[in-house]
Amino acid sequence: MKIVFIEPKSPGVHIYSHTPMPRLGTLILATILRDNGYDVEVQIEELGAIRRDSIRSADVVGISIITPTARRGYELAKIAREEGKTVVIGGPHATYLPDEALSHADYIFRGEGDESILPFIKALESRSGFEGVPGLSWRDGSETRHNKRPGYCKNLDALPSPDFNLITNATRHMSVTPIYTSRGCPFDCGFCSVSDMFGRQFRTRSNEKILEDLRVHRRLVADQKVVTGNDIFFYDDNFTINKKRVKGLLNAMVAEGLTPPWAAQASSDVADDEELLELIGRTNCYYLYIGFESVNPATLTAYNKKHTLEKIEYSISRINAHGIKIHGMFVVGADTDDKEVIRRTAKFALRTKISTVQFMILTPLPGSRTYDEMAAENRITTRDWSLYDTHHVVFKPKNFTELELQIETARAMLMFYSWTNFLNKVVEFSIHLKNLKLNFRQIILSVYGHYMVKGWLKSHKDWMALLADRGADHAADNKT
To answer: What is the domain partition of the chain in residue ranges?
Structure first.
């Protein structure tokens, strides 16, 4: 039996378009099956066009979708079914909307599939035993069956490292290679579905497993493999939750000389540990991606964030002091926000010298409390999932029209990625010659951010017109 896994491409241009990389789930499942004797390959659409000949040669096509890639995933599922293939869809979106996904596939995987994929393939081969596969949804005659979701994988070391050589369609080189060291997030932000999909229990891999991945990465880079990139992104929801663990890992990396340029997502409390900051700063970290979320205390409370505005500012100052670049992530458009909050957010990011930013529009992703609340209030305006990329307004805001929220967010991005701010970074670049590579990277991202926003606005004139018409209709309804 041959299995082809596909990861669809995200719609449109976004802040990570310049650093394409897989999300690892499909690669881990593919590696599990390969290690058990199956013929497997992986197609990552961010890295190259999906090869139809691979679909034709497959017995089973597995497609992993998140909400913004669901529409494209369903298109690929249709192609596979037209070729007569058995289609399986998994990932967060399918986990939370299995009945929708099942209308496009033969089987659905809900939750983590690491411990279910092999029993499923064996059940498929024997055409029996589907009821024993955790997390599986399928049609049994006229009845739709939903098995209980699997528990979260407790021993991540028991899983194989993802084999990037299984990717067969790559024509685009990854500049960044993902490595994961943990799963789960103990926090519970209202707009996020991670804590349900991967659990609030923080699970980790051993340092030895992570170091082995870094050794493999070093060999692949030396061999100049087309897929792998020189830099590392630690693909954790929050790399620094357990500070003692991270310090142990970083010290082990130093001891073995495994310190490629790296980046990771972190929380603002990373600044509470000076020893950790010093270690991060000298192990070749070029960026920390931090979800500050808001400069509005009321919004922080609404999002269930545990830090304050004062804590955010303190964190930025301490991280900057150690020469570590920050990519600050903010979510705008909450019921506690207004135009002034968004403008204040951009000014705050400039004043505190955050290196790069992402002002994301609040998006009711399936699986989040925000989705449940807005669905119950009938505030969701579209279920075209390709628009659920945090760049489009897909709900009725409380203190804005939809067009106002869209425009204010774009203006905030342009304020930050202005030519004036770019010139300031050039001056910083010329002063801090000892960090040539880090500052040059920041300058490139600043230019990219400016043209990305300009390009988005230019290509979305019809979308803006639609929001304007929708606002006029709402105003007319209110008058009536």
So the answer is: 2-146, 173-462
